[in-house]
Amino acid sequence: MSKIHLETLAVHSGEMPSIHENEPITTPIILGTNFERHADGEYKHGWSYTRAANPNRTSWEGALAALEGGKAAAAFSSGSAATMALFQALQPGDHVIATAGFYGTTKILKELLAPWGLNVTLLDTGKLDAVRAALTPQTKLVFVETPSNPLMRVSDIAALAEIAHKHGARMACDSTAATPVLQRSLALGADLALHSATKYLGGHSDVAGGALIADQDDEFFAKVRAWQTTGGAIQSPFDCWLLQRGAKTLALRVRQQAANAQTIAEFLAGHKNVQSCLYAGLKSHPGHDIAARQMQGGFGGLLSFLVHGGQKEALGVTAKCKLIRRATSLGGVETTIDHRGSVEPPGFGTPENLLRLSVGIEHVDDLIADLDQALQR
Ligand SMILES: Cc1ncc(COP(=O)(O)O)c(C=O)c1O
């Protein structure tokens, strides 16, 4: 059979091995935590105790590996737990270079992992010379988020992987905003892809999850798995089932979200009450050419825009939204708007007049009409 496309993989990969005759078409939820040994002492399907592995997690991890084109995957209780496992697979004393600007990862690195012994440099990983200059003999990981949230900066995955590999370091990509539909980080050279599955993979704002997918099922990934299984940062069977259900429509959702986001970005970029719009799909975006090279089928459903004025004017826009919901998370089928300055601590660096939109699958004309009325002064 010829190479199977992502849309087909999303529906069929990670199917559970046969347990019963007359199987259901969709993977059932198996909540059992304790699995019976056969008389010979073996576990027929390899499941013994739920923390180590369970049928729904095995299925979901199989689907994740297929979607990202990786050799192995690990599903965590949240994107943050996946991020923690990635960094904790390093050693205290190691050095990490990571994309600056995302509050969640910054908080993890500064508040939890720096005291644990990790040395961290946060910078704009879109600037390759800055990354080269920050390398030290202890640098073991270059961690990028592209497109980045909420500044929508673009980093060149292939170039950064080359820099990291030449230095004997690994390169990992938080691909949450791009999804495997639009960006295949492993094929571009990354060793690991990370997702907050809470966002687009689940897609319905009803489940938290995280995922790490590895290009090689190697010693490093065994350490990641140890933090997942021995450390207990696992995704529950029900949540795996919800995520696998959501992922079946991933390609349809994400393509619609990206198409809507492109139209909205063009509308916002030309709006008299908008100072600027940050979206890699706009030709004026400094990372457009790189994004066009490393993303296929769109630039994602996430965009930010700066209104004229400051915090008051920005919050005024969110207050007037009628259809678009005010909410902090992203990646669901519904469009949400967030004033990041209200979430992040003072001085974090996100402009006070920035609003982030997570574009859903509604009709784009309805979204534009809502934004247009909300932007009127
Ligand atoms: C790009 C990105 N990575 C990681 C995370 C952390 O994921 P979670 O909230 O599932 O812990 C988030 C959450 O906002 C995110 O947007």
Please characterize this protein's 3D structure.
It is a single chain. It contains 15 helices and twelve strands. The chain has a seven-stranded mixed beta sheet, with helices on both faces. Strands 8-9-12-11-10 form a five-stranded mixed beta sheet. The chain folds into two domains: 6-247, Aspartate Aminotransferase, domain 2 (3-Layer(aba) Sandwich); 250-375, Aspartate Aminotransferase, domain 1, CATH 3.90.1150. The N and C termini lie far apart (58 Å). The protein has helices at residues 6-12, 55-68, 79-88, 103-116, 128-134, 157-166, 179-182, 185-188, 219-229, 237-247, 250-269, 288-294, 311-320, 340-343, 364-375; strands spanning 72-76, 95-99, 119-123, 139-145, 170-174, 192-196, 210-214, 274-278, 302-307, 325-326, 336-338, 354-358. It has 377 residues and is α/β, with parallel strands linked by helices. It is globular. α6 (157-166) links the parallel β4 and β5. α2 (55-68) packs parallel to α10 and α13 (311-320) packs across α15 (364-375). The structure holds pyridoxal-5'-phosphate. Residues 78-80, 83, 102, 104, 145, 149, 174, 176-177, 196, 198-199, 208, 210 line the site of pyridoxal-5'-phosphate.
